[in-house]
């Protein structure tokens, strides 16, 4: 497999726009090789990490903070307070606000939520949302609508959302989201496509979406990026990560 060209480094442009790197990653409650997990995240050099299945039980904050520290990041929002989704970031971000959102609970199903924030990079203001949608198709579809509503209510011109959708691109929830937002892989494919499973990648159920004013420079599984090895990807968790480089315009 040929090595993909490198995505651009993070940067703030003279006009106030910003190039940011966003990683979405289901970390399976850190039940696997956390050193490998930290190496993968660190090698991707993200500004933002949209986490799914962050630790939710005993000493969950300490566990997530340990991962963030190992990857030279800090916790921005989420974790148990959002039923699993979380956001990590570098100190490059100027944080305007954060909010954890618990979604309606369907009896017998797992509680779901959104981890959200509004941050600034230079003159660029960005809404951010991490999600892990339901395994049940009807609930998942409703949650997709709630995600779009939440982004619209954040009061920002530009936003990025990502996570484990538990659905392939042909599914109706995925299509609902891609109708309103840019599916970053479809817009500017880079790296490889499939995110599940690391042992046998055969489906894309994890994705990053961006509002239409954002330029998607490239997006995909960072296989072949320096420092990201097959061994670490297989040891870290049961999903592959998605990395996107985005150019966010300065806010007027």
Automatic annotation (TrEMBL):
InterPro entries: Endo/exonu/phosph_ase_sf, Endo/exonuclease/phosphatase. Keywords: Endonuclease, Hydrolase, Nuclease. Residues 23-239 form the Endonuclease/exonuclease/phosphatase domain. The keyword Hydrolase applies. GO terms for molecular function: endonuclease activity. The keyword S-adenosyl-L-methionine does not apply. It holds the Pfam family Exo_endo_phos. This is Endonuclease. It comes from Streptomyces cyaneochromogenes.
